[in-house]
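Tutorial, part two.
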Amino acid sequence: MTLRPVDDTTYTALAAGTPLPVEQAPVWADFDAVVPGRSHWGRLAYDDDGATAAVVTLVEVRGPGGFRYLWAKNGPVWLVEPTPEREAALRRELGEQLRRLDPRLVFVRLHARHEAPDLRPVMQGITYDRTVVVDLDRSEDEVFAAMKQQGRRAIRKALKDESLTVGEETGLDEAAFAELYDVFVETGEREGFGPHPARRYLDMLSTLGPEHARVFVTRRDGRALAWALVLVNDGAALYSVGASNSEARGAYAADLLHWEVIRTLLAEGVRSYDLAGAGSERFPGLSGLTQFKTKFEKEISEVSPAWDMPLHPRAYTALIKALETKRQATATLSSLKHRLRP
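Running the prediction step on this input gives:
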């Protein structure tokens, strides 16, 4: 069993026949190059019994305070069945190499199907172990017929509303994106999350280009009600981020939006559309999204969640404690400001 560095050409050739998530594809390095605190670290191939069993792309991330870790988003990409033994062997080899090459790395974040003693729940961010994937390897009529009745009903109602339009707006400029970002901010305030600065999404669109990063929008009388940024690579699409305002709910604007995404991708020969996460016992915070997403595909798919693999357990534990102290201080300050507000 060996883990070896490979160049982009070799990496792509080894993965031929297995769809690469866009975050694990060579094009993603262009985006990482412009995100503050990130840089492409390298690509590796994992060989087992004389054949390549997995490939993985790693990005170096520099966190607040200067700590560093590697992030294999949606990786490793397995070319064979990822048994617990294979996953553990890859991580063991990776850990040994990284501790030797760069002793100051604190941990590696990667995806794994199976829980194991060397893995920890991610200290920050959102991950999931279930998702909804719409199968596009069939006709439009078949996709529509396979949806839940409430999904078909919502789309039919939205289609009858002549004030609504929906379509692709890939290639929009910064001024046009500002309107969509305002909808995103409203969604964040309603759902209790803070979006990245608008520049992050504009950089994603410009570096990945229209082949890989697409924007779809539902409008009413010209005003944006809902939008989605969809990532496409190797015949597979992923709902990366999106938003809808309060007006969108009664208009079924989000239902119409995703139906347009599905129709467009299907017509282009894309084989699947991943709606990126559903609730589970392990991640109940996503349960509120499950009912909406399963309108488009009744079946829920099991996927590999992200985990942290500490390279230096003591340093990792200290980092968790420091981050928790910072979160508590921030929460206390926010509460104090709220009480003092006139």
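The CA atoms of residues 104 and 304 lie 27 Å apart. In part three we will examine how such features are distributed along the chain.
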